[in-house]
Description:
3-stranded antiparallel β-sheet, ADP-ribosylation fold, alpha+beta, 3 helices, 8 strands
Amino acid sequence: MIYHVAAQVDWLNAQPSGMYTPPAYAAEGFIHACKADQVKGVLERYYKDQKGLVILHIEESLLSAPYKFEFVERSNDEFPHIFGPINTTAVVGATLTDQ
Length: 99
């Protein structure tokens, strides 16, 4: 299982098409994701004080886009990067953040 932090409105808007792509995808060429033990740090580093967020629980074996773990020097850790839109059928859960 891997996780992605999304704006709840973006996630809801993706439902009709069955594909989710965050706004940053066009500029970065991949979708940032993380492992369970990295979620808290990601929220603290990049989403502090933001409201209306949801954590997508992604079953990577169901992804239609390729993904791979890549080392991120700034964090000194490996993170999963998804190289294409996330098919909504790969998202097996979504949790609202308490931020």
